[in-house]
Amino acid sequence: MDNQAIYDRLTEIFHDVFDDDSIVVTPELTASDIDEWDSLTHIRLVVSIERSFHLKFSAAEVGRLKNVGEFVELIRMKAAA
Amino acid sequence: MSIAEAPALADAATLALNELAEGHSASVDFTITHDDMRAFAVISGDRNPLHTDDTFARSKGFEGAVVYGALLVAKASQLIGMKLPGRDAVWASVSMEFRKPLYVNQAAQVEGTVAGVSVSTGMIELKLSVRAAGKLLAKGQAEVLLAQP
Fold this sequence. Notes:
The complex is a heterodimer.
Chain A: H1 3-17, H2 39-53, H3 59-63, H4 68-80
Helix pairs in contact in A: 1-2
Chain B: E1 25-31, H1 34-44, H2 49-52, H3 54-59, H4 69-82, E2 89-98, E3 107-118, E4 123-132, E5 135-146
Antiparallel strand pairs in B: 1-3, 2-5, 3-4, 4-5
C-alpha cells in the first residue's frame, strides 16, 4: 500500500471520527491542531485505524508517535510485514 | 432476578486486558418483572401501552405486554459492568437488533463474547445475544473501554 492510499483512507477515518470533513490530513498533523482530539477520540481514532487496515498495534508503538506522518510510516511497515 | 435485585458493586468482576482473549464469554440470567416495567416507564417516560397493557398488546398480535428493548440493553449493561470485563469497564458504543419480543416474567439470558481486543487502546469488542427458551430474541455488539491506571 503506498502512502497516498494510506492518507486517503486516513482522511476518511479522521472525517468520521471528528465529524469534520474540512480536516486535511498531512504528515505534520498532531493532536494540538484539532480541538476535539482528546484522549477518548484518540482511542476511537486508533481503533478505527486498526480495523480499517486490519492491523494491530502495541501501546508502545502508538505511544511513541509524534505526528500523523509517523503513524503512516507505522501503518506502512506493519502492512508490509 | 429482577432489576431491583441487581448485585452490588462489590460483586463486580475485574478482568484485566490480558484475561480477555477472543472467545471469552459470560452471561447473566434474568427475568423482567412488572415492577421493573413500571420503574422503567417512570424513568423513561415511555408509557406506550404495548409495554404497559397486556390487553392492548394482545390486540396487536403479541402474547402480552412486551418488555422494553432498553431493558435488554440494561441487562447487557449489567453483564458488562459486573462480569465482562466488570468494574473497570466504560461503554464506548452499543447497538442491538431486536428479533423477537420478550414478555414480562419470561426467563431470559444475555450473553457476551469477546470478538476483538485492541491492546494498544484497551478497547474490547463484544458480541451480544439475548435468548429465551433457546430462541434468539436480540443480537448486537458493544465496544467497551477498559479504564487502565
